[in-house]
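Key result, reporting period 2: structure in, sequence out.
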């Protein structure tokens, strides 16, 4: 029987990688739904190649173009819930919509899928209290595909907090690892999106350059796994082959290594025993692995981690929202690279922050209240 699969955010890097994984075996998959925000040309191409039953284009101005091009596919647009599109339980859903916009689709996916693979940090950072309850209610398998969290999951299956000494999440350091502060002041968007090891979207590439992605990854890991927040550490590993390191209290240390290719964790979540055979790590690569501590002067974002944990339950929501706005402004050349973290720190010290940070979100509405405040506050601080 064919596996019923949906890919939310199919035109992004994770979505494309997911389709690549099933491409050689696509006769065994029924692609029920593909979704995209603006990239209608890529969506049309994907729908034709994989014979998708349904597509959703978020931006309604592209609806007619998609509709005319796909005669044998049902086409939807706007904010329609995927539950209204899919009427049978899915075997697998990849949730790869970028930003907080991915939370509602992820909530819907949990309700109609046997397995949800998550590649959206923001959904977990902002909405884990909601998601975790639904995961239990609908008995949905929820698996991370970010390389760090996939590796932590594989290394700690069945282990309790008292068995683990330390969990190290690695960071490449991005394109500016050894750059001086003076150089960082002059960074341009085209430089920031050139990650040395991974092929990623613009937003996550900038987050990697500032190391904000690692701040979010630690928060995400703390929510996904039952380990105390004090156990998590971040370490620079420029080669990006080692994705996480676990120190156990029995004296053992384990790590997972694999190529810088997201198709590896994705294929493992789809097939369980992966059919993905690529392994390009050579002996010389292993001989040249190195690790180093983070210099907070070069990566001041690291100091935000304790603030996210200690200044109130909605602090991560506020930081995430502000960061999304600031990265967009940087990519549009309206602020400087170093302004991203500087502005977030100003917001955390500013008027009314405590009021919103102390809110404990119990619904999507609560999350949006904190998120909307942070976005408006950020825009007002930067655009005058």
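The corresponding designed sequence is given below.
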């Amino acid at each position: 029987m064919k596996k019923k699969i949906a890919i939310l955010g199919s035109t992004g890097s994770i979505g494309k990688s997911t389709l690549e994984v099933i491409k050689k075996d696509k006769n065994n998959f029924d692609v029920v739904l593909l979704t995209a925000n603006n990239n209608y040309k890529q969506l049309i191409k994907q729908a034709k190649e994989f014979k998708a039953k349904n597509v959703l284009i978020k931006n309604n101005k592209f609806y007619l173009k998609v509709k005319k091009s796909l005669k044998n596919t049902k086409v939807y647009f706007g904010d329609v819930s995927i539950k209204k599109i899919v009427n049978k339980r899915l075997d697998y859903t990849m949730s790869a919509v970028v930003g907080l916009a991915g939370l509602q689709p992820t909530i819907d996916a949990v309700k109609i899928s046997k397995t949800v693979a998550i590649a959206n940090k923001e959904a977990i950072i902002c909405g884990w209290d909601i998601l975790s309850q639904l995961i239990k209610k609908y008995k949905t398998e929820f698996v991370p595909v970010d390389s760090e969290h996939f590796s932590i999951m594989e290394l700690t299956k069945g282990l309790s907090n008292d068995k683990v000494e330390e969990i190290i999440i690695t960071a490449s350091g991005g394109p500016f690892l050894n750059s001086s502060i003076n150089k960082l002041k002059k960074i341009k968007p085209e430089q920031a999106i050139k990650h040395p090891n991974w092929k990623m979207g613009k937003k996550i590439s900038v987050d990697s350059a500032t190391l904000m992605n690692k701040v979010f990854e630690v928060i995400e890991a703390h929510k996904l796994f039952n380990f105390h927040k004090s156990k998590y550490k971040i370490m620079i590993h420029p080669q990006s082959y080692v994705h996480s390191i676990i120190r156990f209290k029995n004296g053992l240390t384990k790590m997972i290594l694999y190529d810088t290719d997201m198709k590896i964790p994705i294929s493992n979540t789809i097939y369980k025993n992966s059919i993905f055979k690529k392994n390009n790590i050579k002996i010389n690569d292993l001989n040249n692995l190195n690790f180093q501590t983070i210099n907070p002067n070069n990566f001041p974002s690291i100091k935000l981690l304790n603030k996210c944990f200690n200044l109130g339950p909605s602090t991560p929501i506020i930081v995430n929202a502000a960061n999304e706005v600031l990265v967009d402004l940087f990519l549009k050349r309206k602020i400087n690279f170093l302004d991203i973290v500087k502005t977030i720190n100003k917001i955390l010290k500013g008027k009314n922050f405590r009021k919103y940070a102390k809110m404990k979100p119990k619904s999507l509405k609560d999350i949006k209240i904190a998120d909307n405040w942070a976005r408006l506050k950020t825009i007002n601080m930067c655009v005058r």
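Residues 364-382 form the longest helix (19 residues). The longest strand covers residues 29-36. This case is discussed further under Risks and Mitigation.
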